Amino acid sequence: MAGRGVLLTVLVVFVLAGLVASLPLRDVIQQVTDGVRVDGSVEQFAHALLGAEKQFESFIKEFGKVYHTVEEYEHRFKVFKSNLLRALKHQALDPTASHGVTMFSDLTEEEFATQYLGLKRPSALSTAPTAEPLPTGDLPPSFDWREKGAVGPVKNQGSCGSCWAFSTTGAVEGAHFLATGKLLSLSEQQLVDCDHQCDPEEAQACDAGCGGGLMTNAYKYVEEAGGLELESDYPYKGRDGKCQFNPNKVAAKVSNFTNIPIDEDQVAAYLIKSGPLAIGINAEFMQTYVAGVSCPIFCNKRNLDHGVLLVGYAEHGFAPARLAYKPYWIIKNSWGPMWGDKGYYKICRGHGECGLNTMVSAVAANVDV
């Protein structure tokens, strides 16, 4: 019966979305925020669709948006309206999280993907060896590398498809911390400018700066180049540039990397052993994500399009819509601290949500720097 109720909610949301999309611009409006949740009630749907223009003005002020012409303003308002409806759909499909207005609410899905994603997933995973299974019988109920000093502040990739570079540097920073006890901030711009490594089995899966890339390719580049510079020596610009790598300023090196088995207990075991892990994920629900534990009813596990950093997990994320405590993964993103949960994403653990367990890699540091 519960399953039928959820299905009915989803159908109602899609029907309402279709009806509202046909209304004049000023008649359509803002979605659920500030504690208003979608549970299928007509009252709540009506509340969620009131005051879009005022909400749009608040959005512009909060995120410092600037539109230079009336036409641009009207176009972005239309996109904003569409994203309000999309957030309603996401709320119904992902009731344990909160979906609402975010910094990306004036971007189309295509614009969002081009500017803020960028993972190039080959049809087959990297030829890097798969790690041997670890014992998992004594895994702690929760674990967080942030509490142990292995994770730096949340960074912001800007409107450049360089997520893969931030995922890579996060993993290398963590590995270097495990080896030396020192947390460094490493250069993503070096990877954007200098790394053109291709997957050995798929010539089209190449690292291409703001045009996307792959973390395992980036590890190979770091090994071959001799290491990464500090962020302070090679600062991030958020756009493609000419390679300025200086081998004399290398601050961290990589000795090897490995793919982790898809079993989520193995992922947890390697997270504890090897430090933060670079992973690929389907970011379908992340454009509208505000907070909470994301447990989408359906999320394509094959369409991995975003590189992020797995830093921990916890056992008790309360999910009021399901009246239960849900274990979840803690993911560090690269869209700045104003997005999500102060720059982090919580997503259900144990179900391979959004393919998060299918492209996981660990890296080891070479401390001979």
Structure description:
This protein has 369 residues and is of the alpha+beta class. Helix content is 32%, strand content 19%. The strands form 2 sheets. Strands 1, 2, 5, 6, 7, 8, 9, 10, 11 and 12 form a 10-stranded mixed β-sheet that branches. The protein has a two-stranded antiparallel ribbon with strand order 3-4. A hairpin with a 4-residue loop joins strand 9 (306-319) and strand 10 (324-332). Helix 1 (2-21) runs antiparallel to helix 4 (70-93), helix 6 packs across helix 7 and helix 6 packs across helix 8. The protein starts with a helix and ends with a strand. Residues 139-364 form the Peptidase C1A papain C-terminal domain. InterPro entries: Papain-like_cys_pep_sf, Pept_asp_AS, Pept_cys_AS, Pept_his_AS, Peptidase_C1A, Peptidase_C1A_C, Peptidase_C1A_papain-like, Prot_inhib_I29. GO terms for molecular function: cysteine-type endopeptidase activity.
CATH overall fold name of the largest domain = Cathepsin B, Chain A
What's the oligomerization state? Answer: single chain
Query: Radius of gyration in whole Å, from Cα?
Result: 21 Å
CATH architecture of the largest domain: Alpha-Beta Complex
Largest sheet: 10 strands, mixed
Give the strand tally: 12
* Overall tally of domains: 2
Integer average pLDDT:
86
Bulk shape = globular
H/E topology pattern: HHHHEHEHHEEHEEHEEEEEE
Q: Give the number of helices.
A: 9
CATH level 1 name of the largest domain = Alpha Beta
Which structural class best describes the helix and strand composition? alpha+beta
N-to-C span: 61 Å
Instruction: Classify the beta-strand content into a percent band.
Output: 15-25%
- Helix residue percentage: 25-40%
Low-confidence stretches: 1-42, 318-323
